[in-house]
Amino acid sequence: KEGAKADAIELYEREHEETGITVAAYVKKHHLPTSMNKSLSVAEKGGWRYAKTRTSILTRASDEEYKQFKRERKRGKVISPFHHMEVELYRAIAQHRKKGRKVSKSFIKITAKKILMEKNHSLKESFKASNGWFHNFCKRKNIKFRKRKSGKRKSGEENLPEVLKFLAYLRHRVLPRREDQAVPPDYTPKWGRYPPERRYNMDQVPLPFVVSQDSTFTTSDDNDIHVKAPSDSLRKRQFTMHLFTNAGKGEARDGYTILVAKGKTDRRKKTEKMAWHKDVPMLFQKNAWVDTAVMRKIAADFASHVKKRHNGLPVLLFCDNLVAHLDEEVKNILAGAGIFLYCLPPNLTETLQPIDAGYGRSVRLAIGRLLDEWLMEEENLAKWEGSMSAAERRVLTTHLVAQATRETMAKDNMRVGCFERTGCLIQMEKTAEADKLITPQGITSVVVVPDTVGDEDDANVQNESQSPEESLRAASDEIYGESSDITKNDVVVEDAVENDDLATEVLCQSWIRIDDGEHEVEDDTCNE
């Protein structure tokens, strides 16, 4: 009770000095009983000239507040043992938001620990800043998570026949051994030619420099949701993360990230290159896209990686139908390392691609969290709100991406679960227990993989006279339509357009027809 009195007096004096708040507003803000209005009006008319009057009124306010706490406890509401710390924490959040800064979960937890350490609280050793405390604190203080203010043509159920066709072909045509091929030493009836550690997925994830800075915790009276950033243009794509990951667990896990940054050529200073994280290779393209030229370099890097890791054993690589993925030289580079490039059906990448099923988002969220933690340092925050050179931004991004990739790769259950849900980890042997794990996004019905491949798909079995790349292309053409028939009147944009900036980037890699006529947008990839 004495602590509540002292806090009430100290809190009012601080707020009155900073904002000039009246006592009535103070009482209303802190939900004190309205029965005090008469005493407060008398005190306000006196202008708080007498310290004795001020102390007596605030003491009475704290008494009423303490009684209210007791009444709430009787009603079954739990009062936090860290109440005094939470008062300071709420004030810190409000002040941080007044400056237009983002308040993250990390900020709230770290600041709470700092306050307890500064006050030398008796419970500082037992306070863990757990998720349970965090959610209860937000509920008690009415802290909201709000977004900064400033679809597919077919549903999953409608796409189910194409999904089943893909899964059936994978189980009955891709995984079994070929009569004209040597049996891999680790071939099993369960996994076939490709065990989990040799099943990979690659995809691109756009990455702005100002990542995960569009939402913030704030107070209920904060209507102008403003979050500072070095530049508003840095909220748009500055990099593209080209992700590789496999379905292995423990020592069998494998994956890494290649960054594609904006820039025409690689003319960076040696000092900057030495500062990049060694685990994150960086390439350059004028729009930070993965075009054909960039994809050839990525394919060569991955082929070299696979040769060292798997010693020539066959590898299955799932990917979408990006034009750069279908380049003949890219396929030849991958085939030279024993990599079987298996393109997913068009317009189904959200449903069937493991990286789109959660892994890519997890990497990006981890980068945002690490950036929040980096901004907890005063020196870094001053640099962020001041000015950072392009070289400093690139160096920082490589280190954030490296750590985020390492942390996300270590979450085996999440990562492997993405392969299981999409069906990319399907077993060659059909078992109800294994097949029930196949739950693609947007499909609510039970997925029952056909026992055989249909007659129209039987021609997709690899032809002995064809190279692996040619037979793969023929199989994909037979099942999903010949890509060679694509003309400028065909819509080849396969991913949902989320915003105008992404629409511009997608259109610059495609031919597309719109209702009011044909518009030709040329880029390096269009002629292919």
UniProtKB/TrEMBL annotation:
SMART domains: CENPB
Keyword DNA-binding: yes
Domain of life (superkingdom): Eukaryota
Gene3D superfamilies with a match to the protein in the record: Homeodomain-like
Extent of the signal sequence: none
GO MF annotation, one: DNA binding
Segments of this protein annotated with the region Disordered: 454-475
Membrane-spanning segments: none
Key words, A-Z: DNA-binding
GO cellular component, one term: nucleus
Pfam family, one: DDE_1
Ranges annotated as biased composition (Polar residues): 460-469
Domain HTH CENPB-type: 73-147
Annotated protein name in UniProt: HTH CENPB-type domain-containing protein
